[in-house]
Amino acid sequence: MAYDKIQIPEDGEKITVNDDGSLNVPDNPIIAFIEGDGTGRDIWAASHRVLEAAVDKAYGGDKRIAWMEVYAGDKANDVYGEEIWLPDETIEAFEEFHVGIKGPLTTPTGGGIRSLNVAIRKKLDLYACVRPVRHFDGVPSPNKFAEKVDVVTFRENTEDVYAGVEWRAGSEESKKLMAFLRDELGVTEEVRFPETSAFGIKPISEEGSKRLIRAAIDYAIEYGYPTVTLVHKGNIMKFTEGAFRDWGYDVAEEEYPDQTYTWRQYDKTEAEQGRDAADAEQQEAEDAGKIVVKERIADIFLQSIQTRPENFDVIATMNLNGDYGSDALAALVGGIGIAPGANINYNEGKAVFEATHGTAPKYADQDKVNPSSVILSGEMMFRYMGWTEAADKIIEAMNKTIAQKRVTYDFHRLMEGATKLKTSEFGDALIENMDG
User: Fold this and answer.
1) Which residues contact 50 (CB under 8 A, 6 or more apart)?
2) 3-state SS of the chain: helix, strand, coil percent to 5?
3) What interhelical angle do 388-403 and 372-385 show, nearest 10?
4) Where are the beta strands (DSSP E) in 335-418?
5) Higher confidence at residue 435 or residue 211?
6) Does the structure show a pLDDT above 90 at 373?
7) What's the chain's Rg over C-alpha atoms?
8) Quick one: 281 exposed, middle or buried, by C-beta within 10 A (0-12, 13-18, 19+)?
9) From CA 294, how far away is CA 208, in angstroms rounded?
10) Could you tell me what percent of the chain has a pLDDT over 70?
11) Are 430 and 401 a contacting pair, CB within 8 Å?
């Protein structure tokens, strides 16, 4: 289709999608990108060079990326006119070309869009927020078990309290809702201060939960992870988060009976035959290579990842828990500056890979900040596209560069004997270390 401001590169081809959501990736795919606000400009300038170098070095010029800039945030406001923060054609371009990558975005203050990042996810129905967190040797960490962290979080992206269904305290809507709760549903003492309470709605659906959990199990199967953990607070929120847990077990037992063994199956065997029989049953499943689908209460999970991170592989959880949990995991391995992310609709083959940190405007245009979040998001993008050789080049270069203690200021201030590099220089070092 024709676009107003977006220029489609003439030397690229579209990625197409099969009925099952799998991709057909040409050797010169058109990849949509959003530069990002604030430090996004510095980060993208370094990141796209690293991504291009990885492709070139992996494939010797047989493959390349045709970048197509699309707009959101401050740059969209500049290009399209005042108060246009997320143009329709940006969403249309992501729909048409399927795969994209973005830097951090500033959410405008005041009315309108609550969050540009959330808006993009919702408009494209990118239901799975995928955040892998792993430790790179040499990265400073406050946690002595950091080297054991290798966890991939699947965070449901479209529901929970992030749905944005809420009303201010004292508003007419809050008063009407309170009256309905009181008069129609008998809710009285549960709302302690009804006249001054704000209200929010927490939708958790069977369809939304199951497709997210299905994606997490598929990922564990594809990459050989031994466990999937359902993280929830179902002991308190029994019909929302508790239902998420139950639907997760349903998916595993009904759709993956030959690939999974669940803690619900364990509990049933224990109740009927005793713990020894349940232990033996689970051990047999593990010996057969089945994925153990287990659960953790959210607050216990946040404790456990600090003391026993090796017990967790793939996490499936709801929106708010996933937000807390993925950031907490990132803190264990050096912070969100080195944590990549993706938002994916596996059913339709749509994906936007992104930095997980903010725009840090006070550091903008200083060639200072760590570009690793976007670079590693690009590594995720390559794996999603099936370009594993290019993805491997990035991981190898990241490991080698950090081991050499050639790092940006955020790591430099925490590492003895390190060499402080600018954003662009760190990109140069990564490219240099791709040569072997």
Assistant:
1) 371, 375, 378, 394, 397, 427, 430, 431
2) 45, 15, 35
3) 150
4) 340-345, 350-355, 406-407
5) 211
6) yes
7) 23
8) middle
9) 19
10) 98
11) yes
- Residue 36: per-residue pLDDT: 94
Q: Which helix (H) or strand (E) holds 49?
A: helix 40-59
Question: Known catalytic residues?
Answer: 162, 233, 299, 323
- Encoded tokens for 147: 């080297």
- At 39, the amino acid letter reads T
Residue-wise pLDDT for 52-69, tens only, equals: 999 999 999 999 999 999
How far is residue 283's CA from residue 170's CA, in Å, rounded to a whole number?
56
Q: Are 249 and 257 in contact (CB under 8 A)?
A: no
Closest CA to 306 of 323, 322, 330: 330
pLDDT over 60 (residue 346): yes
What distance, in Å, lies between the first and last C-alpha atoms of the chain?
42
User: How far apart, in whole angstroms, are the C-alpha atoms of residue 130 and residue 126?
Assistant: 10
Query: Of 64, 71, 88, 70, whose CA–CA distance to 13 is shortest?
Result: 64
- DSSP annotation of 296: E
Q: Is 5 within 8 Å of 80 (Cβ atoms)?
A: yes
Is residue 197 classed as helix, strand or coil in its secondary structure?
coil
Question: Which spans in 256-317 are helix H?
Answer: 263-273, 275-287, 298-307
Could you tell me which residues are beta bridge partners of residue 152? 132, 314
Tokens for 245, please give them: 């847990």
Its pTM stands at 0.93
- β-bridge partners, 153: 131, 315
* H or E stretch covering 102: strand 99-102
Q: Which of 359, 368, 360 shows the shortest CA–CA distance to 407?
A: 368
Q: Within 10 A of 106 (CB to CB), how many other CB atoms are there?
A: 18
Q: Which residues pair with 261 in a beta bridge?
A: 292
Would you call 218 exposed, middle or buried from its count of C-beta atoms within 10 A (0-12, 13-18, 19+)?
Answer: middle
The predicted pLDDT at position 164 comes to 86
